[in-house]
Amino acid sequence: MVEHGHGDPKHRGAVIRAGEGESGGYAIDDPGLPPHRPRLADEDPKAAKRSERQVFVMFLLSIIGTVIFFVGYFTIELSEDLHMLRLQNTLLGVGVAFAMLGIGLGVVHWAKTLMPDHEMVEDRKPLRKEAERAEAEKIVGDVLEESGIKRRPLIRNTLIGAMVLAPLPGVLVLRDLDQSDDFGVERLRHSLWDEGVRLVRDPTGTPIRAADLTVGSAMHVVPENLRDVPGHGDRLSEKAKAVVLLMRMNPQDFETVSRGREDWTYDGIIACSKVCTHVGCPVALYERHTHHLLCPCHQSTFDAANEFKVVFGPAGRPLPQLPITVDDEGYLVARSDFTEPVGPTYWERGEK
What is the per-residue pLDDT for 283? Predict the structure, then answer.
């Protein structure tokens, strides 16, 4: 006769479940925290001093990075020389990278080698108001004391210098986006497009014949008179407002044609602003089967078959459509400028 439970690990004692041990506790006791292992800097003052110098060098590297940014920003002027433009971009990028990286690496190295690393468990206390203020201040003081920031002026001073200088490149870049007094919806209402202005490929400037476009094709185009704008900065500013996405569909695929827009397309060729009406990112992804345009920044989706209306995403209004036709030579030209401001909708809030 086979004894009941023979072969069953639960009844043979091979498995001990929680609460069934000899002491009535758990099968495996909480091992607790492992013993603290002191670091080299904890026992050797020379090692601690060496780590302090290393943190100083990293914070100093951040300051040097900010200086490199300033050199590129203030000493190199924008010009048509691509070599100087690339040099400036390199200095700006490298400077900002080192400014941020130096602070990050310095703080991490400081925490790993000099700040206390012992583990502790503290129960969360119930929240009180004024009664806990003094204790909170004491905790902050203890944190500052443990960080060693009071005892290590070399690290403290370079950290303060790096943190003061590091945000300045961002301030300068934001300030330099546009220094004009009339920046607003009126500047975005008008572009280089006008009656008879040819659509040309970017960057070659080649004009586009309607007969050369196949159904399903899409391309990035700019106005032909863009090359007549003097000054590299002004040219970029005008290009940002006038850039257009051109595509060709079957004429029967248009689902919506509003009154007054009957002649805004030519034989299935349609054009719209590439500047997303959400925050101004470039709309560039065209799906020929659904006729949808996607903005890669926040996934706003526009329907070219329905006058570029928003079908998904945070954009607040359709992409402005550019009225187009062909000239006597068969080249695509604009009928007029955009009939509404291009770009983000928030520029129109002042008019509401």
Answer: 93
